[in-house]
Amino acid sequence: MSGTKRPVYHRQRLLLYFLENLPVGQSGERSGLAKSDLQKLLLLYCKDMGSRHYDFVPWDYGGYSFQCDNDLTWLEKQGWIKTRNNVLFLNQMIDGERWATESEERETVRHWFFRHPWRGDELVARTYRLHPYHALHSKMKEQLLNAEELARVERSVDAIENDEVIVFTLGYEGIHFETYLNKLISNRVAVLCDVRCNPLSYKFGFSAPMLSRVLPKLNLEYRHFPELGILSEKRRSLHSKANYEVLFNDYRENLANRREGLKRLMQVIESKRRVALTCFEANHQYCHRHCISDFLKNKYYYKVEHL
């Protein structure tokens, strides 16, 4: 396989382990697997095995991983798989690959795969019944589920008990794009307020174009507040907690001067009631978003929750 890059990530190898377990037909060609079926099987596998390779959001036809779709595109470009009419086929044998022959997960997938023969609507319905949350935004749940099962889907996310204003904060460091989205969905966030100065990221999914495209399909709005961000040059020498404190003290002292940004943010909070401030850092104490949420809490008495 000269010129073909080996899959570096274990999650990409997992996709190949799935496809190599498809039966071989009379023509000698291995059969294919519909992309939608792979997504549902992958969801069941990750749930059954406690795997953290992928996470899934409730999408048009149930649980969906954007990262999986992105990995499939990469694998196809490298020649490992091919696609015909949204059906996936293994294009390169992996028996001779050391990373495959020495993989314990490869054997785990083999045993798991043959215990899960469902495909098409039967597979979709099974994922809905086992994991009702992932049917939340499905376009076909009514035709696959009965009234009791549909009620379980609606109960999979807590109802909003009052019209209380809540300002959430959320960082995307160290988590899947889908895990991040699920935090927004499960907390009934209405608007994601991006307080990065530059809303671009090398981490898959977290740049503004992707967020602004995906969030509306999950009944979420995306708003960017560059005027509340911190310039990247001010973040280059953050090597200790003391460095962060100097940066944040300066930010707090000048926050009130960012009138237009705060005014826009307040308008969104008052009209939408449940918003989330987002930036990169997982720990809100190491991110300027906590300075904004502290300001809102202390001056306007908003309830704040750090996700």
Count of DSSP H/I helices? 13
Low-confidence stretches: none
Multimeric status of the protein? single chain
Helix-strand makeup class: alpha/beta
In percent, how much strand structure appears in the residues?
5-15%
The helix/strand series, from N terminus to C terminus, equals HEHEEHEEHHHHHEHEHEHHEHE
Strand order of the largest sheet: 8-7-9-6-10
Distance between the termini: 45 Å
Sheet with the most strands, sense and barrel status: 5 strands, parallel
Query: What is the mean predicted local confidence, pLDDT?
Result: 91
| Helicity range | 40-55%
Radius of gyration over all CA atoms, rounded = 23 Å
So what's the overall shape? Answer: globular
Number of strands: 10
Number of domains: 2
Which descriptors would you attach to this protein?
single chain; 307 residues; alpha/beta; Protein-Tyrosine Phosphatase, Chain A; 5-stranded parallel beta sheet; 3-stranded antiparallel beta sheet; 13 helices; 13% strand
Write the layout of secondary structure elements.
Elements: H1 10-20, E1 33-34, H2 35-49, E2 57-59, E3 62-64, H3 66-77, E4 81-84, E5 87-90, H4 98-101, H5 104-113, H6 120-130, H7 141-144, H8 147-155, E6 166-171, H9 177-186, E7 191-194, H10 208-214, E8 221-224, H11 241-255, H12 259-272, E9 274-279, H13 289-300, E10 303-306
